[in-house]
Structure formats: C-alpha cells, structure tokens
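Thread: "does anyone have the structure for this chain?"

Original post by V.I.:
We have the sequence but no experimental structure in hand. Need at least a predicted one for the grant figures.
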Amino acid sequence: MAVRPSVWVLRTVGTVHTVAVFAQPVFAGVYLSGDFDGLGMHRTGADLVTSLCLLQLVVAGVVWARLRRSWPFWASLALMAAESAQYVAGTEGALWLHIPLGVFTVVAATLLFAALWLRPLAPRGATPAAPTATPVVGAPRTERADV
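Reply from O.Q.:
Generated one for you, tokens below.
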C-alpha cells in the first residue's frame, strides 16, 4: 500500500522538528561556553522549535481527519505542551525546570520521530495486501500419500 501524501508531510515536518530540537542544546552549549551570541541563537531556535511543533500538530490533525489515526495528534499535543512549558521556563529563567524539561523534550521528540517513521499510518480499516507465497528454490516437494 502506498504511503499517503499527508503521512509524508507529517514525517517531513516531524523530521525537521526533531533536527531543530537537537540544535537547541548545541546553541545553549555555545552560550554556556562564553559566546553570548549563543543565547540569541537559542532564543531563535526556541521560536523555530515551537512553530514547527505547532505545524506538526496541525498536520497530525489532518492525518487524524483523513486516515483516522489519532495517536500522532495526541503525541504531538503532549510534545507541544512540554515545549510550551519549556519555552516559558526558559524565558522566566527557571533553569531548575528548563534544563530537565529540555532533556525530556529531546527524548520525546526522538521517540515521536521514530514512531512516525516505523509505525504504519495506513487508513484505519484498510486491509494490507496479502503476502504472496514465493517458492523456495531447491526446496523438496512434498507429496501427500493419502490423497
């Protein structure tokens, strides 16, 4: 069964989102190593990550409506909630929450990325094509004597 365009869009947005999430600790590290431009990159990255997660949530809603698969929507919504709390904790300077929530966000985005690529997203109720029997070359033929 061919993969639907909405699934490809969701996987693409999820991939770009995950790459942006992985860039955030790098930008924070640049800042913590003494380059104060890293804070601006981290702030811009946070805006990008949050926007990409919102886009992912919208596309997951389309997948839910078109293919009747709700798990990408709910997983993206949970990730959006975590990223929103992460964003607020960062802007408020609550590093006691911002850093551990950042670790959680990276792990959650990675797991969602893997699920989007590994779990099938065929329309619910669609029957997969039946596998065809392929004869094994050199396999002995079995004859039934009782026929």
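V.I.: this helps a lot. The longest helix spans residues 37-67.
O.Q.: and The two ends are 39 Å apart (CA to CA).
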